[in-house]
Specification:
The complex is a heterodimer of chains A (about 120) and B (about 110).
Chain A lengths: L3 E4 L2 E4 L5 E7 L6 E7 L5 E8 L5 E2 L8 E7 L2 E6 L8 E9 L7 E4 L3 E5 L1
Parallel strand pairs in A: 2-11
Antiparallel strand pairs in A: 1-3, 3-8, 4-5, 4-9, 5-6, 7-8, 9-10, 9-11
Chain B lengths: L3 E3 L2 E5 L4 E6 L6 E7 L6 E7 L4 E4 L2 E6 L4 E6 L8 E8 L5 E3 L3 E6 L1
The chains are: A mainly beta (about 120), B mainly beta (about 110).
Chain lengths: ~120, ~110
């Protein structure tokens, strides 16, 4: 299957700082990427859909100004957690959709980023 | 709306079979199945399209009944490597996948 990378894999930061997470599709171009958040032993909660060249579409209840998403190219999407607080600590996973020419497209997940805010 | 998975957890002995169910309250275009091991990202297993298709991947297969808006994942002669949490993701008109809460599968030797 296709490969999706995320960086960093782990980050620890102080409360009030901003953290940027990168998601890259390594061997295909992804016009659409997705950002998920996962708490321990819980499901994958979709935060937003990232579209190359346009604004991200956020799910209900997700603060746009808190979680900034930029999809600058067909292989890179970034999630910036602004003014992070301890409640933002979580496992953030991105996925990229490999286009097949018709629906449905397969989504491949990155390895995830574990964010800990002190 | 989040699909409902059942059971929440399963414990099997190596070689036994298991079925994991996924149901939705809305019309579905496709169902996606993933397996996630602790601390790792979900790994893609298969996609099923409406039309009642079935698919297989080694000893793991799945079916999709679009009329009932249900999908089932079948694990045959389970292996230790099958342990993990299985998520179904459903896709409707909105062109995005919403995941169920997951089914934890533990295989005993």
């Amino acid at each position: 299957g296709a490969v999706v990378s995320q960086h960093p894999s782990r980050v620890i930061c102080k409360s009030g700082t901003s953290v940027k997470i990168e998601c890259r599709s390594l061997d295909f171009q992804a016009t659409t990427m997705f950002w998920y958040r996962q708490f321990p032993k819980k499901s994958l909660m979709l935060m937003a859909t990232s579209n190359e060249g346009s604004k991200a579409t956020y799910e209900q209840g997700v603060e746009k100004d808190k979680f900034l998403i930029n999809h600058a190219s067909l292989t890179l999407s970034t999630l910036t957690v602004t003014s992070a607080h301890p409640e933002d600590s979580s496992f953030y996973i991105c996925s990229a959709r490999e286009p097949s020419g018709s629906r449905p497209d397969t989504q491949y997940f990155g390895p995830g980023t574990r964010l800990t805010v002190l | 709306q989040q699909p409902v998975q059942s059971p929440q957890a399963v414990i099997l002995r190596e070689g036994e079979d298991a079925v994991i169910n996924c149901s939705s309250s809305k019309a579905l275009y496709s169902v996606h199945w993933y397996r996630q091991k602790h601390g790792e990202a979900p790994v893609f297993l298969m996609i099923l399209l409406k039309g009642g298709e079935q698919k297989g991947h080694e000893k793991i297969s799945a079916s999709f009944n679009e009329k009932k808006q249900q999908s089932s994942l079948y694990l045959t002669a389970s292996q230790l490597s099958y342990s993990g949490t299985y998520f179904c993701g459903t896709e409707g008109d909105e062109d995005k996948i919403i995941f169920g809460k997951g089914t934890r599968l533990h295989i005993l030797p």
